Amino acid sequence: DSGVTQTPKHLITATGQRVTLRCSPRSGDLSVYWYQQSLDQGLQFLIHYYNGEERAKGNILERFSAQQFPDLHSELNLSSLELGDSALYFCASSRWGGDPSTGELFFGEGSRLTVL
Amino acid sequence: AQSVTQPDIHITVSEGASLELRCNYSYGATPYLFWYVQSPGQGLQLLLKYFSGDTLVQGIKGFEAEFKRSQSSFNLRKPSVHWSDAAEYFCAVGAGGGGNKLTFGTGTQLKVEL
Q1: What is the arithmetic mean of pLDDT over B83-105?
Q2: Among B75, B108, B86, B106, which Cα is nearest to B17's?
Q3: A43 CA: distance to closest CA in chain B (Å)
């Protein structure tokens, strides 16, 4: 158990819909990262938040957005869903937000999104 | 931009045999290198990491990896594989200064034959 909690574990929805994925980082971790894992794209970095502020953006679509709340949990919002958005979405947390030598990433078990 | 190549999509080894998983990276500066393992239905778990110093790093579960700058490689090894090692293995490179973003390889699926 990494200490990172993601909900829901599984989600099935229809095209055009909107969903919210939630992540609670490990106790004391200030950084939250979102990754998308799909068969054709592999593991892709989406976005990084540190202590409530966006720190880095990766291959995140404009239809997707994220935020980190004062209690440090994070939500990833996916809207106008398409079939190709079906994937496993991982949240990871780390103590700090800077140089990766300051700590490893701890991954949650992921939220599997299926868009029909 | 950094990138990681894992040339082997699938590898099958017999239990007790040695294992080497290949990883090549591309990064302009000194890289931060990681190996993660993903068991079915689980998240990723860190096996080991290299930041600086000794180029041979030891990790959990009996794994080790060697950083070779001249070959831009960071191969993962284990002297004797156990059936429980069957999983998917990801090599990743991290950039320093300003973020902890990791760029992952496409992964190598390890199958262990009993």
Answers
A1: 82
A2: B86
A3: 6
Taking residues A70-78, report their average pLDDT: 97
Residues B8, B108 contacting (CB under 8 angstroms): yes
Residue B102, Cβ density class (10 Å: 0-12 exposed, 13-18 middle, ≥19 buried): buried
Please name the member of B41, B51, B101 whose beta carbon is closest to the beta carbon of A48.
B101
* Closest CB from B99, B100, B104 relative to A43: B104
Q: How confident is the model at residue B12 (pLDDT cuts 50, 70, 90)?
A: very high
Count of Cβ atoms closer than 10 Å to residue B81 Cβ: 20
Nearest chain B CA: its distance from A61 CA (Å): 17
The strand ranges marked E within B56-101 are 56-58, 64-68, 73-78, 87-94
Q: Tell me if the bond preceding A70 is cis, omega within 30° of 0.
A: no
**pLDDT of B98 above 50:** no
Interface contact A98-B100, CB threshold 8 A: yes
Chain B residues in contact with A108 by the CB 8 A cut-off are 43
